[in-house]
Structure formats: C-alpha cells, structure tokens
C-alpha cells in the first residue's frame, strides 16, 4: 500500500499527471508536457520512458519551432471511447481511441422529437454495429459521451426543458444508455459538445476562452472559460437563444417574446422564404442558394447574422471570450453571415472586448457534436486504469 506523501505515491501522482495531459490533448511534445504539468524536463523524460516501456504511450519524432522534438500520445490500443450525438433530425455515432483517432463513424436519419425509447433503441443498435464493424475489444471501452439537443439538469440527469424535446419528458439519457451498454456514460447538450469538439479538433484549438454558437432548430451556446466547459449550477448556461431582442416580438417556445431564437432559428426563418422558394426549403438549402447569389436568401442570412451578432455582443460584454465559433448549417454561409455578425459585435460590444474577439466558422461542420462527445468521454475517464493496464476495469454489456 502506498503511503500518502511517500516517494512511491508522489511518483504515481506524477505518472497520472502526465497521462492525463496527454489524454486530454491527444499528443504533446515532452516540452509541452512539462509546461502543462509543471514537472521538470528531466522528470517528464523519465516518466515518458517508463510509460513507453509499459506500452501506455507511443513516442514519435516530430519538430517544434524548427527543432527536433518527440511527440507523445497514448497507445492506439490503450482504450476506446464512443461518441453518440442525438440531433433533431439525425443520430450520429463515432468510435475513437485514446490517441484521438476516429476509427469509425456513421449517421442515420432520426426524428429525435418522436420518442426517447426509439432514440435509445437506435443508438444501442448503431453503437453495437460500429463495435462489430471495427472489431475492437469491448473490454477496452473506457466510456461513452452522449449529446442531446436540450439542457441537462445537473442534479437529476434528466432533460431540463420538456418544451424542447416533448417526447423525452422524464428521460435520463446517461442512466438509460449506461443500463443498456454497461459502461460509464457522460451526457451533455449539443452546444457544449460542439464547443468541446471544436476546442479539441477544430477552430477552437489552443484557445482557453471561447463560445461555440449553434443555430439549428434552436439556438444555443457552448461556453469555454479557462479551458473548461462552463455549465452553470443547474446545467443551463449558454442558452443564448433566449436573450430578449424585442419585447414586442414573436412569442418564443419558452413563453417570452422576441427571443434571439425567434429571429434566427430555422423554424422561424424558413417561413420567410417558403412562399417564394417552396415549403421543402431547409437551412442548408438557404445557405446554398445564398452562396449562388439568390438575393432573398442573402438578405435573410444577413439579417440572421446581425441578430446573432447582437447576442454575441452580450457575451463579449459579460464574458470577454477571445473567440466565437459558429456551428451548424449556417456556418457554411461564410462571410455572408460572419460579416454581419462582426458588424453587430462592433456596434454593440464594448470596444476593448470587440477588438480582442475573433469570429470564425466551425471547422468540423456536422461532426462537431459527435467529436465533442468523444472528447467528453476522454475528459471524464480516469487515468489509474490506464496505468494498471486496463481501459475500464469492467466487461461491458455489448451484444
């Protein structure tokens, strides 16, 4: 037994610090590990050598700042994580390893509003299918990240707003999927997962304070403060879609009038164009037509951008993020929407906050949330099991 404060317990703690730093980043040079953990270069070198000999990490030659360096990542067979993303119209599942490599990914149409049970059944089937397709060892599965398009109540683990997903009233997604699949499940809303995905793999890499704005059937923001997702005590932080823009505006599904969502979400925007462009128009179609020069679609996207910019300006004044990443179909409009967003930020935000802000489209497109689910599973798993030679220490109930 290790005695607290002993050399052996200190060594174990340093091993876990190095493994955690590499696990969260995907790969780091030894110099980056030293900066991240606060350990000396000599200590990091010795620990990396020990972990490499044990098969926990892999070391490959690289360069940093024009100098030769060694990149450290967890071994490809150290463990597996799974990401599940429930969108309003789709289900997407991905399988990845602890070296941040995506091994398989698949999506299929799904009306998530219809029934929670149907959604869980489809997710269980698709997860099992990808496990079979990739041939990974189920005992290597360390955890699952799960995303849903609505706020999660932190205390109960249930959906916090039945007005968003009426078919999921009382559902506890993490508990349900954990019972079906037999491994730890972490759950979060889609905007938070989009922020995680972009922070680890996309337009938010290297940034410690950012907001990910997702505009789809609703509008939400994933907030990253000092490198961590900020959820708030009740799990509802980031509901930017319910900032009031016009007290006399349209009635929102939340019961208030003139919320940002009523001026930007697809369910409110598409009817503006359906009389001239048909009832089967989608937001992706609006973006495509706008990029092809359609004047009506361009005007609508510009208006949406200005309204989003008003909400972003509020975020700038309150939180002063250094970067805002726009996700969802709307991001494909590029400068047609980003320009108006920046215009509103320049007009309504405190000048110092506006000058420090960069507004970018997401780099991951529709994959941001499922990759964020992988990142959530990676961030929440423990490191002791990796050092003990197993990914999860349990046999999952996959069939």
Description:
The protein has 399 residues and is an alpha/beta fold. It is 42% helix and 20% strand. It is built from 15 helices and 13 strands. It has helices at residues 7-25, 30-37, 41-53, 116-134, 173-181, 190-201, 261-264, 266-269, 271-277, 283-291, 295-319, 335-348, 351-356, 368-380, 384-387; strands at residues 28-29, 57-64, 67-74, 80-86, 90-97, 102-109, 141-148, 185-189, 210-215, 219-225, 228-230, 323-327, 358-361. It has a five-stranded mixed beta sheet with strand order 6-5-4-7-8. The protein has a five-stranded mixed beta sheet with strand order 11-10-9-12-13, with helices on both faces. Strand 5 and strand 6 (102-109) form a beta hairpin. Helix 6 packs across helix 14 and helix 10 crosses helix 11. The protein is globular and about 70 Å long. The protein starts with 6 loop residues before the first helix and ends in a 12-residue tail after the last helix. The model is unreliable at 390-395 (pLDDT under 50).
N- to C-terminal distance? 37 Å
**What would you report as the Rg, rounded to the nearest angstrom?**
22 Å
Biggest pleated sheet:
5 strands, mixed
Q: What proportion strand?
A: 15-25%
- The class by helix and strand makeup works out as alpha/beta
Helix segment count? 15
- SS elements, strand count: 13
Helix percent reads 40-55%
Strand order of the largest sheet: 6-5-4-7-8
Topology as a string of helices (H) and strands (E): HEHHEEEEEHEHEHEEEHHHHHEHHEHH
Mean pLDDT: 89
* Low confidence ranges: 390-395
Spatial shape? globular
